[in-house]
Amino acid sequence: MAAGTSVIRGTTTPTHGTTTAEHELAALQREHGGPLFALLLRLCDGDRQRAEDLAQETLVRAWQHPEALHADAFDSVRPWLLTVARRLAIDARRARQARPPEVGDAVPEDARVTADHAERAAAVLDVRQAVKTLTPEHRDVLVLVYFRGASVAEAAQTLGIPPGTVKSRAFYALRALRRVLPGYAADLH
User: Fold this and answer.
1) Measuring CA to CA, how many Å separate 189 from each of 23, 40, 43, 119?
2) CA angle 67, 88, 92 (to 5 degrees)
3) CA atoms in the 13 A half-sphere facing the CB of 165
4) Using CA atoms, how far apart are residues 37 and 59, in angstroms rounded to an integer?
5) pTM higher than 0.70 for the full model?
6) From residue 99, how far is each of 33, 96, 136 by CA, in Å?
7) Per residue in 58-73, pLDDT tens?
């Protein structure tokens, strides 16, 4: 074959600075790009982006294997390109099925929403202010049981009161907090 001649349809290299391989690829794209993309679009269930990516990957494979393009065993490279494209699409589908489904930028409906740091800090201040409105007896029980993690028996021993009194004070303290903090009532159950 002549130095400036392409494999595809005997075109010649028209410009300076580009290689014969680049021109061959461009000619492949022009001649076979439409049918290649149509096949991939069907295999990708209409996902244009994925079909475009696979078409590009198919052409990269053609560039990496010029011996397939130069083979005299067949008249057209289209069957080879379509076979490579089909195999790439099958591999891509298998890869997608092997990993968890992709989610976009949208937050799933069942995702747990977490408050940011500023909201949490504001909530802490609200709770502190509300706890200050309680009687000292109720406040002491809440601090021991809910903030320091003491058991009812440990709180009773520390405060010198019966366990039943600890339970009733904790109940009435939480009820008072629910009235003062209506927006936090769900968090106090």
Assistant:
1) 72, 55, 53, 20
2) 155
3) 12
4) 11
5) no
6) 30, 6, 56
7) 888 888 877 776 666 6
